[in-house]
Amino acid sequence: MLTLEANRTEAAPALAYIGRVSGKPEWKFPAHQHEDVSEIVFVSHGEGVMKINGVPYAVKAGDLLIYNQGIIHEECSSPICPLDMYYCGVIRLNNEGSAPVTLIPENASPYVHTGENAGHIGSLFAMLYTESEEQAEDYELICSSLLVALITLIRRMAATENKPCKNDPDALAVSLKKYLDEHYLYHLSLNDISQFFHMNAYYLSHVFKKKYNDSPINYMLRRRMGEAKRLLVNTDMKIKEIADFLGYENPNYFSILFTKTMGESPTQYKRSERRERIDLPRA
To answer: How many CA atoms are closer than 13 Å to the CA of 161, on its beta-carbon side?
Structure first.
């Protein structure tokens, strides 16, 4: 972690620290919060799970996580495709008696997929990290400008996230699938989904089933079981650990669901797949 020494005379957001996590399969950070710092995380490569106020998000390259001050969050890297990510803390200088640093509105999603902006976000973080590390002449001014650009871009993306139109069922189904792919670790009900989209639950289910021949709830279940299969074959994680990773507090219940969905128990599946697969040595 790199700490930025900054000019304390201006009441504006400033960089408190910046750091990187790279290629650590076992990396995780338990639930915590920052009372006086807001934090931005950018995933440049790999996969993981971030829980924000108890809600898990399956993250991948190009994703941003934004934690306003006081937000409880925890982070965990995928053991198969480890996270590479930047993170930085933002404070407000001379903040006595004034409002805390709020990077995004309280009702905005703390998870943003940057899409075509991923390259810009990655470049801003890389420059912030390099300038903070090298601390060449006027690096404080450069970091301040880069931080303003980063926050402005984040707020623009958060403000322009539009929900699909009810009058375009096909686009609605695609948008719903994207939402489910991003939140399948959070055990959503159909009512939860309908509240997010501000639409009738049965209409949403009908639109999704017509396009994908599946219900939203069953789709999320199959996504979780597919992830379970991947972890069973490619890691040495225990069934209890996989169940916890996928949001199941009771590993026995997870095993029952897996068996019902996949036709064999997690142990049977792992044994049969390992027996059939040949792993070649890597160069």
So the answer is: 20
